[in-house]
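Input structure tokens:
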């Protein structure tokens, strides 16, 4: 997992090809700790992910809800196989998804 900062936005890049029952707890713990540290705007780059199971999806939903009204989680770099899972579960309607990290960073920030 890699992370960088774009001002008040934390960009976390998942460095694995799967976000599944084995890997998802690490993401939940890592991003959860950053939220506890006070990060309100988080971009999650999934450009390397080729496989997403129900546990991985559950972690993404959990993190989305955890941001609450005071923050925002935006996903980016979502490939077609992962997007198919989002569409099938209709989570593409609930989760904020952008094409690139730059678009996601912009979408994170509150409108001026």
């Amino acid at each position: 997992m890699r992370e960088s900062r774009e001002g008040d936005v934390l960009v976390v890049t998942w460095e694995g090809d799967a976000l599944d029952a084995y890997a998802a707890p690490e993401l939940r713990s890592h991003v959860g700790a950053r939220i506890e540290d006070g990060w309100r705007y988080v971009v999650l780059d999934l450009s390397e992910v080729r496989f997403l199971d129900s546990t991985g999806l559950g972690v993404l939903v959990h993190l989305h809800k955890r941001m609450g009204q005071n923050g925002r989680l935006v996903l980016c770099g979502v490939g077609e196989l992962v997007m198919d899972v989002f569409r099938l579960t209709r989570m593409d309607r609930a989760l904020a998804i952008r094409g690139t990290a730059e678009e996601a960073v912009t979408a994170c920030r509150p409108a001026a």
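The mean pLDDT is 93. The first strand starts at residue 2 and ends at 6.
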